[in-house]
Amino acid sequence: MFRGALSIWGRDMLVLRRSIFSELIAVVAYPLTLYLAFGFGLKGYISEVNGVPYPLFIAPGLISMTAVNAAFDESSWSMWFHRKVQRTIEEYRVTPVTVYDIVIGKIFSGFSQGAIKGAVVFLVILFLTPFRIDYGHLPAYVLCLAISSMTFSCLGTICGTVIDKPENIGRVQSVVIVPLIFMAGIFFPLSSYPASILPLIRLLPTTAVFEGARDALLSGSIPPQYFINLVVTAALCFALAVYTFNRKMAE
Amino acid sequence: MTHAIALNEITKTYDGFKAVDRFSLKVARGTVFGLLGPNGAGKTTLIKILTTLMRPTLGDAFVEGFSILTAGKEVRRVIGVVPQENNLDRYLTARENLILHGRLHGMRASAYNPRIDELLEMTGLASRQHDFPDTFSGGMQRRLVVARALVHEPRVLFLDEPTTGLDPQSRRALWEHIRGLRHSMTVFLTTHYMDEADALCDRIMIMDHGESLADGTATELKDAFSRAHVLQVEFRDDGAGYAEKLAGLPFVRSVERNGATFHITLTGEEAIKPLMDSLAGADIRKICLKEPTLEDVFISLTGAKVRE
Predict the structure, then answer these.
(1) Å from A247 to nearest chain B CA?
(2) Predicted ipTM beyond 0.85
């Protein structure tokens, strides 16, 4: 079971291995720049948020952002490229693998890319800056990161499946993904929001991703409401990704 | 069971348009079957249905006894597919493309590695196996797609316009590979090229508008259409004086003139003698019965108009 998914995931990891250095340089540059610009540039103005030094406050979110962005990018562009440009999805579909194998293989590729890139950004921040954590908190943080990457990988798979024009994938990123990420309190505390909209913001899956990640890294546990939000969102996105891909292939 | 492929009243409709209409067909095992038709005839739709990429609106089809509706996975286990476009993975080397295909078929490395070596030798790509397909010519890419379709030793091979866009040398080379497969598996190919069908196929079906128009060996199809009685007459002079005279004869259906050469289509076999009588005394260099080509058969069945 899932031998096909494993083969497709293996193919994607082989391709990633070939270009790992150029990929990582590109991936590390963006969050590191944000960390240095905000963490150090604003340190003189914002020393602490809720008792947490500002560079430490933004670091978990930046690492999570790298992971979920990488998961979304890999899944959406890879699915679109294999479906519309290379047409390799068609080659997979004339072998005994099922559409579930294909979609699960692609989701795991996105998840793996997210996990690898997030981990590298984490190490770079750890190496280059005074950012330090309690390593006993890592399991909770990695769990949060894994569920978040899975969710974004599923969302990317849905976009790569239903969107035919590549520019529209970029638009979804700009109009949906980036605002959802930035609204979720990576750079500022959620208490900055007016009390009237705060409950809505807390319900956003991205809030669960970034607030959950911060709490996991700083306190070693994911608050239950965020954990439930993460798991339910991941399960829904997975079911939707499989359903969407199945329907598209049946057209 | 003697049939590798059986289609029972397959219909495929897209938004009210019938791409295939109650199409039935049986292909015997070990034959090379050619499906000919102009663009939009329904050939690719049929291949997509038979390879489980598309479900028919009505009817069912069987490949090696497995239903495309209820046993798609089993169908895909026994087929190899060469699609119209080269869908190679440009981020994998030639060998890695074949390995991935073997893995998707659940093969172990001990099974696919020797088979891949054999196929790379057969297709003349052994020395380029570690190169990426982007660096290959169109003919080499096509041979690699054929090799990929054969990794798992399919019982039925589907080739959708396998030589479109290739130069004559590459076409001939690919024909040789396809000929080499004859009798070891059933080959189902679609093509626009009449010479290709003539050279490769044991049986040919011409289809248009989703329906079968003619079916048989190349010789049978040509024989069936040789009743057209086209005579080629070449005059020593320019023959200008004969054009009007020939066109006016009651047993002549049409006259096409190319310089001193006339192509005369008669109404029937019985018109040959009166034509000879009419041409008595004419200064003729050559006169012969023009044998129809498969292309003549194709055009007479599907029409000469260019399709959108």
Answers:
(1) 12
(2) no
Top-tier CATH class for B226-291 = alpha beta
Tell me which CATH code domain B3-224 carries.
Answer: 3.40.50.300
pLDDT at B227: 59
User: Is the CB of B3 inside 8 Å of chain A's CB atoms?
Assistant: no
- As a whole number of angstroms, the distance between CA B37 and CA B54 comes to 20
Taking the whole predicted model, whether its pTM rises above 0.90 is answered as: no
Which positions of chain B have pLDDT values less than 70?
Answer: 1, 224-228, 292, 300-301, 303-308
The phi and psi torsions of B232 (rounded to 5 degrees) equal -110, 120
Contact yes or no for A146/A108 (Cβ under 8 A): no
Chain A contact set for B150 (CB, 8 A): none
Long-range CB pairs of A231-234, under 8 A, 24+ apart, other chains included: A231/A147, A233/A151, A233/A205, A233/A208, A234/A147, A234/A148, A234/A150, A234/A151, A234/A154
Q: Which neighbouring-strand residues pair with B289?
A: B231
Domain boundaries, chain B: 3-224, 226-291
Q: How would you write B110-161 as a 3-class SS string?
A: HHHHHHHHHHHHHCCCHHHCCCCHHHCCHHHHHHHHHHHHHCCCCCEEEEEC
Helix (H) or strand (E) holding B190: strand B186-191
d(CA B158, CA B111): 23
> Which candidate in B57, B78, B87, B158 is best for mutational testing of the A interface (most A CBs within 10 A)?
B87
Q: Indicate the domain borders of chain A.
A: 3-250
Residue A96 contacts B, CB cutoff 8 Å:
yes
Nearest to A96 among B55, B76, B88 (CB): B76
CB B279 within 8 A of CB B273: no
3-state class (DSSP) for residue A32: helix
Number of other residues whose CB lies within 10 A of the CB of residue B206:
24
Beta-carbon separation of B92 and A15 below 8 A: yes
Q: Which run of H or of E encompasses A77? A: helix A54-80
Contact in structure between A82 and A8 (CB atoms under 8 Å):
no
Kindly compute the dihedral angle of the four CA atoms of residues B130, B136, B142, B147, in this order, to the nearest 10 degrees. -10
Digit-coded pLDDT (tens) for A67-117:
888 889 989 999 999 999 999 999 999 999 998 899 889 888 888 888 888
The mean pLDDT value for A115-120 works out to 87
Tokens found for residue B303: 């029409």
The answer to whether A83 and B89 have CB atoms below 8 angstroms apart is no
3-state secondary structure (DSSP) of residue A56: helix
